[in-house]
Design goal:
Radius of gyration: 27 Å
Strand content: under 5%
Number of domains: 2
Helix content: 55-70%
CATH topology of the largest domain: Butyryl-CoA Dehydrogenase, subunit A, domain 3
Shape: rod-shaped
Strand order of the largest sheet: 1-2
Number of helices: 10
CATH architecture of the largest domain: Up-down Bundle
Largest sheet: 2 strands, antiparallel
Distance between the termini: 30 Å
CATH class of the largest domain: Mainly Alpha
Order of helices and strands: HEEHHHHHHHHH
Structural class: mainly alpha
Length: 224
C-alpha cells in the first residue's frame, strides 16, 4: 500500500488511517527505508489514538516484510554496517597497514649489521625485537580474520574485533614499558618524543572496545 506524503511520518499516519494497526511501520521512499515507531506516530498525531487497537497488532506491517514483522521493522536500520562500525572497519584497515609497516621495520632491524652489537649493549633487546615481531604477525592475522567476519556481518565479528583491539591496546603498553626498561627513559624520549600520539591511540582503542561491547548497533548488526 502506498501513499503520497510530504514526510515519512505523514505517510505512516495515512497508512494507519486506512489500516488501523498497533505496530511499528517501515516507510519506503525509493531505495531508502525508515522505521516509524507507533509511539512516535501517536505523539505527533494524537487523533490517531482512537483508531489504533490496543494490545497485539491486528495486522502485519506489510505483506512483503515477511514473518516477525514487528522485530524486522525495529531492526531495519541495522541491516547494513553503519555508524561507528564504519570507523571500526576503517581502523581495522589502517591497523593492518601499520602492523605490516612495523613488521617490515622490525625485520630490517634484525638484519642490520649493527644489530649484534646492539644486543650486546642493550640487555633484553633481542627478546623485545622478537616480541614485536610476533605481536605484529599476530595482529595482522587477527585483523584479517576479524575483517572477514566483519564484512559478512557474522556473529563472531564482535568478539573477534574486541579481541583485536584489546590485544592491540595491551601489546602497545607492554611494548612501550619493555622498551623503556631496555633503552632507558632518556633515550626513549628522544626516539619516541611524541608520546601524545601513543596516548591518543590507546584512548581510541579503549573507546572502540567499549562501543563494541555495549552498543545496540554492534549487537544487532553482527547477527548472521
Amino acid at each position: 500500500m502506498s501513499f503520497e506524503a510530504a514526510t515519512e511520518l505523514d505517510a505512516a499516519a495515512k497508512y494507519v488511517m486506512a489500516r488501523p494497526v498497533n505496530v511499528n511501520l517501515i516507510v519506503s521512499s525509493g531505495m531508502d527505508e525508515k522505521v516509524i515507531k507507533i509511539v512516535d506516530l501517536l505523539a505527533a498525531y494524537p487523533d490517531l489514538k482512537s483508531l489504533v487497537p490496543e494490545g497485539p497488532a491486528a495486522h502485519p506491517v506489510e505483506e512483503d516484510v515477511g514473518g516477525d514483522a514487528w522485530q524486522k521493522a525495529d531492526d531495519a536500520k541495522y541491516r547494513s554496517i553503519g555508524g561507528w562500525l564504519v570507523v571500526i572497519g576503517i581502523g581495522l584497515v589502517l591497523s593492518i597497514g601499520y602492523a605490516a609497516f612495523s613488521l617490515k621495520e622490525t625485520w630490517e632491524t634484525m638484519h642490520d649489521p649493527d644489530f649484534a652489537a646492539a644486543i650486546e649493549y642493550f640487555e633484553g633487546l633481542q627478546e623485545l625485537i622478537y616480541f614485536e615481531l610476533g605481536t605484529n604477525v599476530a595482529l595482522i592475522a587477527l585483523a584479517l580474520v576479524s575483517g572477514y567476519f566483519y564484512i559478512g556481518r557474522k556473529k563472531l565479528a564482535r568478539p573477534l574485533l574486541v579481541l583485536f583491539y584489546l590485544t592491540a591496546f595491551v601489546t602497545t603498553i607492554v611494548d612501550l614499558a619493555w622498551a623503556h626498561s631496555v633503552f632507558g627513559t632518556e633515550i626513549m624520549e628522544e626516539v619516541n618524543g611524541d608520546m601524545a600520539q601513543t596516548v591518543k591511540k590507546l584512548v581510541v582503542q579503549a573507546i572502540l572496545v567499549v562501543y563494541l561491547i555495549v552498543s545496540e548497533r554492534s549487537r544487532k548488526t553482527f547477527v548472521r
